[in-house]
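**Fold in tokens:**
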Amino acid sequence: MSFPVSFPVNQPLVTVTHPEPALWIIELHNGADSRLTTTLISNGLMPALDAVERDWRNGFRASLKSKDKTSAKGTLIIVGNTSQDKFFSNGLAFEQLSADPPAFANFFPVVYNPMLRRLLSFPIPTIAAINGHCFAGGMILALACDYRVMTDGNKKAAWICMNEVHFGAPLPLSFTAMINAKIPDPRTRRKVALQGHRFSPVEALQTGIVDFTVAGGTQGVLSKAKELAASVNELPKLGAYGLIRRELYRDVMEASARDVDRPSVAADDNAAKARL
């Protein structure tokens, strides 16, 4: 495949570049804040992941025929719109989804959760280059990656947050499973899920939500992400990386596959009243 390539073709929301032999970068550019809509995920991010994996596997197969494993190296970086320093992703288009009940019912089991499973079993290391605010579904996308590099927020304020409790949206099972898997400290999980705390980059680093914070806005974040990518790009060269990840996060994989019954605040209230 020839890079760069963008998806969907008629209205690009995601672009894949291949700037180095062992590096692919997926840029989200659904406007400045990269809302994770059905179109962006199904027609943008998923085919972009396919394009990266297909290209990597071509190199991996070539490596199987020789003693040189160089062509089997690889890392993927996911970054927010690189023309700004304000957002990695502002999460889901919640109001738009809520206004369409059938689409809302299908969104997690059919659209979002398959994307999480795809990332959690991806065959090469993945890095979220968090170049701005990272909210709700955007934070879960970042957690699905192996590593997280975040702007230090000095150039422009940046927060990472699960804010569902503040707008009355229960967490899907897949979100809860991801938080439990990637944030082991119960006090931090409480702040994330039950308090909807806005973590500054310093707090996110101290609590282990992100691995690095760097100055310099988007370009600084990308530079550090590329440096990190170069340090881990040999890990998938024997082909076991994705298989190990899949088993490591089996609980999340299975939870996301069961996430078919979306809880509702109103329905829960009605059920509670019926019991009282």
Summary: Residues 5-275 form a domain with the 2-enoyl-CoA Hydratase; Chain A, domain 1 fold (CATH 3.90.226.10).
